[in-house]
Amino acid sequence: MRLGDGDGFVRCACGSLHWGPNGAAGLLLSDPERGVLLQRRAWWVHHGRTWALPGGALRSAETAAQAAMREAEEEADVPAQAVRVTATSVADHGTWRYTTVLGSVHGAVDARVANAESTGMRWVPPHEVERYPLHRDFAAAWPALRMQVGRRLVLIVDGANVVGSRPDGWWRDRAGAAERLRDRLATLAAAGIPGGHDGIPGVDGAEEWCWLPHIVLVVEGAARGIASVDGVEVVAADRDGDTAIVDVARQARKEGPDDHVLVVTADRELRSRIEAEGATRLRPSTLLDLLD
Going residue by residue through the chain (292 aa), what tens digit of pLDDT does each one get? Predict the structure, then answer.
């Protein structure tokens, strides 16, 4: 077999043999109706005849998410445009890394065995996954991964409160200040938010979590005319900003009852209102630290 870019084994510091000198990645794809997509590995591949995720080695110029999506298309005929990536979880061994890319179906996905590296593709309800003969490393990671299957991080930003938390002259151009916040939020949406910060969900264990959030910026007053951009939905308050934020939080909980819904605000009264809706407060200082 001719080895391609990124192919080959690594003798890891953990004592095991792993595939992929640049690391490896797999796609944990979930569908609320069908469960999670598992792949039965062919007999001749590493850890053959076990069940795990579509995935493989990273090429030298790929991100983990790009590699996971490419491998899922090559092995399971999963189109990248039909997947909404929600988070990543990295097991870092020092000399080798494996990234689980969590995503949910938001388009037509008719998974099938698409190359010789697999002998089966199956949608499995999460509560049945442990009944399968799993790849050793996937079996170890599954309990933490299962907790986040199908869950998004929804970040609702109280624009006026966050802009007003720093005396940088925002009062001279409120709309311009809101636009600058929006654009910084768009960069954060693309880069992702590390788990484990104040109020941001992290998972116990050695894995490093990063969330690709759905961000909603709620604006009011002079900032009401700014537009949404890729990665940031802008909602203009019809009345007061607090009521609009509570409405957005309520709708987010309705659309995704298991989603992590965080509201960025320092307003104490608003905090009690959004917590009554099942959302969690995130301090503006935490968000600003992430944006800096």
Answer: 456 788 888 887 777 888 888 999 999 999 999 999 999 999 999 889 999 999 999 999 999 999 999 999 999 999 999 999 999 999 988 888 999 999 999 989 999 999 999 999 999 999 999 999 999 999 999 999 999 999 999 999 999 999 999 998 999 999 999 999 999 999 999 999 999 878 788 876 667 999 999 999 999 999 999 999 999 999 999 989 999 999 999 999 999 999 999 999 999 999 999 999 999 999 999 999 999 9
**Interatomic CA distance for residues 23 and 10, integer angstroms:** 9
Question: Domains in the chain and their CATH numbers?
Answer: 9-146 (3.90.79.10), 153-191+212-291 (3.40.50)
With beta carbons less than 8 A apart as the criterion, state whether 38 and 52 touch. yes
Evaluate whether 262 touches 214 at the Cβ level (below 8 Å): no
CB 66, CB 80: distance < 8 Å: no
